[in-house]
Amino acid sequence: MDMPPFDICYRALASRDARFDGRLFVAITSTGIYCRPICPARTAKPENCRFFPSAAAAQEAGFRPCLRCRPEISPDAAAWRGTSNTVSRALALIAEGHLDSEANIAELADRLGVGERQLRRLFEKHLGASPVVVAQTRRILFAKQLIQDTALSMSEIAEASGFGSVRRFNDAFRKLYGKSPSELRARKAAIGAITVKLGYRAPYDWDQMIAFLGGRAVDGVEIAEPSRYARTISLHGHMGAIEVRPGKGHLVAAIRFAEPRHLLAIVGRLRRLFDLDADVAAIGAHLSADAHLAPLIAKRPGLRTPGTWDAFELAVRAILGQQVSVAAARKLACKLVALTSPILTPDITGDERLKAIFPDAVRLAAADLSSFGMPNARKKALSALADAANADPRLLDVHGAFETVIARLTQLPGFGPWTAQYWALRALRDSDAFPAADLALLRAMEEGGARPAPSALLARAENWRPWRAYAAQHLWAQDADRALS
């Protein structure tokens, strides 16, 4: 398992070092409880401490979560990210409920392009627990968060967290906590939107995240303000809305959605949209070896790579953004939504400004784009994408390597290397995706008035691997700064 030596772990615990939050958990043998390294409880003696790389590993060893420091809101472990994209992708799928039982491990491994044995080995190496145990731990910790932070009924929480029945839900909590779910609920939150905390490892550059999303916000679908991001969402035929605000060491998400069973998947999507599982300190240390990137990272140490709510939506946006400015692409997206979206009411979204849904493949395929203000080639590309996604609902799913998905996309009209790489960076959460021909990236790397060729930039970016996507984000931020100066 990828764990620091015991003495380093213990020093992190004794100093309550927030840099290790999510990277390790401490189990206290004298109490049978495991904690985050920032737990305010008195530090246990070294001989009573065992350290684990994940909450799942601690629970599999027989320890129960601390009720004080609440491991359910700690950042996801990210120290190993970049060394195992397979584990990262597997966790993303697990977060959306793709591993509800032992029988599904074969399907999960197949989607990742690895064998079951290799998948188990990778999980044991990086997280100290099997995929099934990781999935079970995520479910029960998410349920614990809903118990303490929402007014959902116990049956709704059981459904939202992926338990097959209330009985299984109750049994799991009594076994782990020694209490029933009802006994754990100290208070009830106000009825309305379901509010959950989304942890991350500091620093987090909220201002840059909201600036990026705000520059691309689609009228009626999104609202991006200095202290708030909100948007409408659609999932499995149901519509709702989310609102995210910055907190202290976490983001606060308010979720309006009529089907509680999809909450775990919604939270998983939000974590990827806001890139909450990145270890930006490790990424920054690697990229700072480049003389051009070092001052950019020093300026914005908490910069993240924004994801997307929906892979199909981003594919559409990528086509709309070809050979035009960000502002022009945003206008096109607004027109497309106005052409295709039903009208939503505030009782669904919680805000009268949120009244539209970004078109899915069915709505886009049915839309009349003849009068849409775009070149015919790009209109045909939109229609071809919608037709392909309707014919194959798993067109944009990851099966095997990222390159496989990108290859499928580039076979469609209008999907060249830039479009596919940009889509992979944000939709696949590929930390190494890099659209080398991007004009803003080339502008940002100008030296002495000379702009590098895409091939030269790609060659230089070899030293930035496996974090080229984060290098791109820093360069985009630099280019935006220059445009404002």
UniProtKB/TrEMBL annotation:
Span of domain HTH araC/xylS-type: 89-187
Chemical reaction(s) catalysed: Hydrolysis of alkylated DNA, releasing 3-methyladenine, 3-methylguanine, 7-methylguanine and 7-methyladenine
SMART domains registered for this protein in UniProt: AlkA_N, ENDO3c, HTH_ARAC
Listed transmembrane segments: none
Documented EC number(s): 3.2.2.21
Catalytic class of the enzyme: hydrolase
GO molecular function list: alkylated DNA binding; DNA-3-methyladenine glycosylase activity; DNA-7-methylguanine glycosylase activity; DNA-binding transcription factor activity; methyltransferase activity; sequence-specific DNA binding; zinc ion binding
GO terms under cellular component: cytoplasm; protein-DNA complex
The entry's keywords: Activator, DNA damage, DNA repair, DNA-binding, Glycosidase, Hydrolase, Metal-binding, Methyltransferase, Transcription, Transcription regulation, Transferase, Zinc
Pfam families assigned to the protein according to its UniProt record, in alphabetical order: Ada_Zn_binding, AlkA_N, HTH_18
Database matches in InterPro entries: Ada-like_dom_sf, Ada_DNA_repair_Zn-bd, AlkA_N, AlkA_N_sf, Alkylbase_DNA_Glycosylase/TA, DNA_glycosylase, HhH-GPD_domain, HhH_base_excis_C
Cofactor field: Zn(2+)
Superkingdom of source: Bacteria
GO biological process terms held by the UniProt record: base-excision repair, AP site formation; DNA alkylation repair; methylation
Record's protein name: DNA-3-methyladenine glycosylase II
Lineage of source species: Bacteria, Pseudomonadati, Pseudomonadota, Alphaproteobacteria, Micropepsales
